[in-house]
Amino acid sequence: MIIWSSGPALTRLWCLHKPCSSLGGCTADTLRGALSRAVSGLSPPAELLQPSTLSPAPALDPCSRARPDSDQVSEPAPITEVLSFKMGRRPAKCYRYCKNKPYPKSRYVRSCPDSKIRIFDLGRKKANVDDFPFCAHLVSNEKEQLSSEALEAARITCNKYVTKTSGKDSFHLRVRAHPFHIVRINKMLSCAGADRLQTGMRGAWGKPYGSVARVNIGQILLSVRCKDNNKAVVMEALRRAQYKFPGQQKIIVSKKWGFTDLSRADYTKLRGEGRIRLDGAYVQFHKAAGPVLTNLSRGAPSLVVEPTEA
Fold it and tell me: Where is the stretch described as Disordered (predicted)?
């Protein structure tokens, strides 16, 4: 049985493990009235404050519980402060569909909250094209809006699994979707007398609340390049990151060499002919313009003129 009794400076909770018949003649109506008075902020009745009725034991551990068959009374620690809680953000399902025009940050939208995702490239970013030939993509299968929180959660999940399994220098992860669209919220008051203060749907444009990425069907969300022997690890990492997004996604193994636009056969051929040069995660094509000797030194067969018979 629990009784709230108001003290001089704070409110304490009394836990009594005795039946109502053993409280010195106190009836259920008396205890019910004491509870109602405690809720109203009043002091308990005099019959409950008698030493024979209510005599708390010395302070014990708040986590300890007395047995029902014992006369020991445990008094929990008093509450000396009030905790303030911050409300959670609105669910992202409220901003799932691409209904209106894009609303990015501009001179018309000057103040907006920062995006949750701030890192879009991680892993071994400076690896050459030759180091990571395998590439896999996580592709969206719906036209929707993805919050920056979802992108950050997927990035963390994919990075953590690959780093733990094969090492931090065994891959290069790139987030391909960017949350540029700003969503708004029209906050409503929920206190007493709110109907006299708020204006309802009059002027319901709302204030900037968060950022989302507008994606289409077939758009790449995540791309990972690595060595061929780490294919299974990357596929599992993308599968786990897939659960951080709403809607449907597909994991597609690229036929290209890494992040380049060349297929594996074309890359191997052009690389052997010396017609491309490495440029970080991509390649650049050698142009035919320039000194003839320079082009011939690269070994480009298209620049070599075969002699013809007269």
Answer: 45-74
Homologous superfamily (CATH) for 92-184+204-253: Ribosomal protein L16/L10 (3.90.1170.10)
The predicted-structure confidence for 237-281, as pLDDT tens digits, reads as follows 999 999 999 999 999 999 999 999 999 999 999 998 888 989 999
The CATH code of domain 264-303 reads 3.30.60
- Tell me the residue type at 218: G
Q: Kindly list the domain boundaries of the chain, sorted by start residue.
A: 1-79, 92-184+204-253, 264-303
Q: Which two tokens stand for residue 49?
A: 């404050």
Nearest to 226 by CA among 236, 218, 216, 234: 234
What do you get for the CA distance between the two ends of the chain, in Å? 116
Instruction: Decide the pairing of beta strands 220-226 and 249-253.
Output: unpaired
Global pTM value: 0.67
Query: Residue 7 and residue 14: Cα distance in Å, rounded?
Result: 11
Torsion over CA: 53, 54, 58, 63 (sign): positive
SS3 string, 12-48, reads EEEECCCCHHHCCCCCHHHHHHHHHHHHCCCCCCHHH
Which residue shows structure tokens 């011939």? 296
pLDDT digits (tens, 9 = 90+) for 201-213: 888 999 999 999 9
The CA dihedral of 226, 227, 233, 237, to the nearest 10 degrees, is 10
Q: For residues 234 and 158, give the distance between their C-alpha atoms in angstroms, rounded to a whole number.
A: 8
